[in-house]
Amino acid sequence: MSAKRARLYDVFALLAVKVMVILDQCTKSLIIRNLNIGSEVPLPLVGHYLTLEYTQNNGAAFSLFQGSMVLVLLIGIAIIVVAALYLRMLNSGSLILKLVFGLIIGGAFGNLVDRVLHGGYVVDFISFRIPEIKYKFAIFNVADACITVGIFLLLVIVLFGGWSRNSSEKKADALSTSSTTPHQEDMSEKQA
Questions:
Q1: CA-CA distance, 79 to 169, in Å (whole number)?
Q2: Checking DSSP bridges between strand 50-57 and strand 122-130, what pairing results, if any?
Q3: Spatial contact of 31 and 123, defined as CB atoms under 8 Å apart
Q4: Which residues contact 86 (CB under 8 A, 6 or more apart)?
Q5: What pTM, to 2 d.p., does this model score?
Q6: What whole-number percentage of the chain has pLDDT above 90?
Q7: What is the DSSP letter of 124?
Q8: CB 139 within 8 A of CB 63
Q9: Burial of 189 (C-beta count, 10 Å sphere; 0-12/13-18/19+)
Q10: Nearest CA to 147 among 88, 40, 60?
Q11: 61 with 145: CB under 8 angstroms?
Q12: How many angstroms separate the most distant Cα atoms in the chain?
């Protein structure tokens, strides 16, 4: 892969980050303006299965580690890991891989903006439940969904071998770096 193409993919990843942050912050702003915090009656989107319910989350994604110093440590470790992985593929890597990192980083920045703007908490508002079996998933937001989907896709890419460049790219690189090919060596032997 050319460095020019890799830089273009990095631009797309940055664009994905911006789109995710803007989408996340716009939806949170709409929720803050139009819903009361902790309302008894959630606003239905898909019956009573998917609803809007405004809450303020002091923990991590899906309300994990609320008020815990473990949260700060985990966020720090996660940022370092994601940054290190992205730096490893800065001048290489497929478009899909770069976009996956864009999802993860965009989600992280969306929640970081919330913590700065709101003094430490994140606005959550998407609630999924199945009342027939008394199941209620933790309330989340667009940023949480971006991070979760991004991590899932990254796991799929890593498990199915998409992390490294494909074999045809490796073969092309090997051919371009070698000074002579076997065919050229045969030709020079015949001439001698």
A1: 30
A2: antiparallel
A3: yes
A4: 101, 105
A5: 0.72
A6: 22
A7: E
A8: yes
A9: exposed
A10: 60
A11: no
A12: 91
Give the distance from CA 142 to its chain's centroid. 11
At 124, list the tokens: 């959550």
More confident residue, 116 or 62: 116
Catalytic residues: 124, 144
pLDDT in tens, 104-123: 989 988 888 888 888 878 89
Amino acid at residue number 108: A
Burial 44-63 (b: 16+ CB within 10 A, else e): eeeeeeebbbbbebbbbbeb
Q: Considering only CA atoms, which of 149, 134, 113, 90 is closest in space to residue 26? A: 113
Location of structure tokens 């439940």: 129
In sequence order, the β-bridge partners of residue 129 are 136
Alpha helices (H) in 35-94, listed in sequence order: 69-88
In angstroms, how far is CA 59 from the centroid of its own chain?
19
Q: What digits encode the pLDDT tens for the residues 148-191?
A: 999 899 889 888 876 554 444 444 444 444 444 444 445 444 55
Residue 192 tokens read as: 């001698």
